Amino acid sequence: MTAVRETAVLCEQLGHTVIEAAPAIDAEQFSDAFIAMWAAGCAWGVTSIARLSGFPPQPEMYEPVTWGLYEQAQRMTAADYLLAVQTVQRIARQAACFHEQFDLFLTPTVADPPLLLGSFDSTPDNPMAGFERAIAFAAFTPQANATGQPAMSVPLYWNDENLPIGVQFTGRFSDEATLFRLAGQLEAARPWQHRQPPLSIWAARGESER
Predict the structure, then answer these.
(1) Span 32-58, mean pLDDT?
(2) Other Cβ atoms closer than 10 A to 2
(3) Above pLDDT 70, what percent of the chain?
């Protein structure tokens, strides 16, 4: 959250008015609906492949998380799917109401610094383990995915391990122009083009220890 606070200060320094506020969205309802729609989309893909290929779907044909989502969708009803769609549509309207007062909504991009390879892998006893970890990691981006709002992540900050820390701005519907203008201001104030993370954080640690 330090990056968010510092970004808010930077925006104020650039002449923007910053107010602490958030849309009144039930995070648990949104998460359940988003996952249900994701599972339904996954099942649609698996079923389409089976129809086109003539081969019935089998777990060994897919990654564990894909098969786990497919199985979850098999336990859903048509009503479950439509209720999930209804929930996301309601949340989109709530977001639109929020943006009648605010041009942009500032949040972290992700909940943690970049993770090690394998952090999102399935485990033998839980094929959904990686997916569940991904949900916790990407806690802020799905709203724009689901509602269709424009959003951007800007790498304004770097942690002690020289890894970029992004902050996300979500805008009003169809208002990409405001995001582009703000991105230009932020990059001019705090350029990031010349900064590059190490190819491997382990390599960076090794170099710092020499």
Answers:
(1) 95
(2) 10
(3) 93
